[in-house]
Write a structure and sequence with these properties.
alpha+beta; 3 domains; four-stranded antiparallel sheet; rod-shaped; Core-binding (CB) domain-containing protein; DNA binding; DNA-binding; DNA_brk_join_enz
Length: 290
């Protein structure tokens, strides 16, 4: 006869452990110490086996019966419920070990092996440090879009709109790496497109008038501030490099005199290249800072 919840609550411990049976092999083992443990007796491969289903009241009578039915379905499929339970525990432990921090660190190590520029690595590391306090210890496969959005909105509300957008992209790269290495099913940041404030871009008017351009060059050559800044302004006018390229530039030996050619070896992001520009002899007075 099936047991009732009232009968379970009223069951008292005895000198020896005893069973209170339900149906279908399900029973409650009551130990002398007072603990009440659900067990399921079944046969598999011609052998009698016992499956632990948890303790009462953490696992209610209804939940124990649901677990019994799930075990029966496994038996119908030719699978041993005890083996399946062990595999589930192993999978759960493995999933818990694959946290956001672990995958993020692996991604950074991968970027280093690929020879990414130091500045790129510093930027990625800094961006991920903004997400680690909230997401770091969470299993990567269990992180949801609302969790990521909460992190991003915390930055977005402080007016750091561009940082929030870049962080979303960086977090996305972590999830894409997790998907590629079979540790996550999808990238939750994909659903967050359009959820952040779009930074307002201020466009600067270009100097297109020849007289205004001449005035700009005279102002550059007349600048009497720091020598490094003066040299940089002049090189900007002569070489047209990106600001990041100019900051990372260094002079190198060249087969031609310095008065006719200056060679700048630059590193920008993951792109490495040597940029060469020729100028007339008068440009040697730029005085490129070493």
């Amino acid at each position: 006869m099936p047991i009732t919840d009232l009968a379970i609550r009223n069951a008292k411990p005895r000198e020896k452990a005893y069973k209170v049976s339900d149906s279908g092999g399900l029973h409650l083992l009551i130990n002398p110490g007072g603990s009440k443990l659900w067990r399921l007796a079944y046969r598999y491969g011609g052998k009698q086996k016992l499956l632990a289903l948890g303790g009462y009241p953490a696992v209610s009578l209804g939940e124990a019966r649901e677990k019994r039915e799930a075990a029966k379905k496994l038996l119908l499929d030719g699978r041993d419920p005890s083996v399946e339970a062990k595999l589930a525990k192993i999978a759960a432990a493995s999933s818990a070990a694959q946290t956001f921090d672990v995958v993020a660190d692996e991604l950074i190590a991968k970027l280093k092996r690929e020879g990414k520029a130091e500045n790129t690595l510093i930027k990625v590391t800094w961006l991920l440090s903004l997400a680690r306090p909230n997401l770091g210890k969470r299993p990567i496969a269990e992180i949801t879009a609302p969790e990521v959005l909460q992190v991003l909105q915390g930055i977005d509300r402080r007016g750091r709109h561009e940082s929030a957008r870049r962080l979303r992209s960086t977090i996305s790269s972590v999830f894409r790496y997790a998907v590629a290495t079979a540790r996550a099913e999808n990238d939750p940041t994909f659903a967050l497109r359009g959820a952040l404030t779009t930074p307002r871009v201020t466009h600067r008017a270009a100097v297109t008038d020849i007289e205004d351009f001449g005035a700009l060059l005279r102002a550059v050559w007349g600048y009497d501030g720091q020598p490094e800044t003066a040299s940089a302004l002049k090189l900007m006018a002569l070489l047209f490099p990106r600001p990041g390229e100019l900051r990372m530039a260094s002079t190198t030996a060249s087969s031609k005199p310095i008065s006719s050619r200056t060679r700048m070896a630059t590193t920008c992001g993951s792109r490495r290249r040597a940029m060469t520009r020729s100028f007339s002899p008068w440009s040697a007075n730029v005085g490129f800072a070493r």
